[in-house]
């Protein structure tokens, strides 16, 4: 990200160094070849990253499921209760039931 501030004939450029870490999605059930502890293993790994105070959390939830039961939102709220560093994102808007409105989920 670049931030340019100008005025009075000068220009200041601030470059923010960010690292993006794509973590696996939270899971509930082990599939063939995975250890039975996979759900707990993944949650523990995710926590090691999102508990860091300099981490920005992107909590992604499918719009076709009840956001109140979102594991991603629940976990983010546990480590960022003030929601100062959490962004929520809805996916799969195309799979929502006919007649439903995504704005109802976020308002």
TrEMBL record:
GO terms for molecular function: GTP binding; GTPase activity; microtubule binding. PROSITE patterns: G_DYNAMIN_2. Transmembrane segments: none annotated. Residues 1-107 form the Dynamin-type G domain. Residues 1-18 form the signal peptide. InterPro entries: Dynamin (IPR022812), Dynamin_GTPase (IPR001401), Dynamin_N (IPR045063), G_DYNAMIN_dom (IPR030381), P-loop_NTPase (IPR027417). This is Dynamin-type G domain-containing protein.
């Amino acid at each position: 990200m670049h931030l340019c501030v100008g005025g009075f004939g000068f220009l200041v450029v601030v470059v923010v160094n960010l690292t993006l870490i794509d973590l696996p999605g939270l899971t509930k059930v082990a599939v063939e070849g995975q250890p039975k502890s996979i759900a707990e293993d993944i949650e523990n790994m995710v926590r090691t990253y999102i508990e860091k105070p300099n981490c920005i959390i992107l909590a992604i939830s499918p719009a076709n499921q009840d956001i109140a039961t979102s594991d991603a939102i629940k976990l983010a709220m546990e480590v960022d209760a003030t929601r100062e560093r959490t962004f929520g994102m809805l996916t799969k808007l195309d799979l929502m039931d006919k007649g439903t409105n995504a704005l109802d989920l976020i308002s």
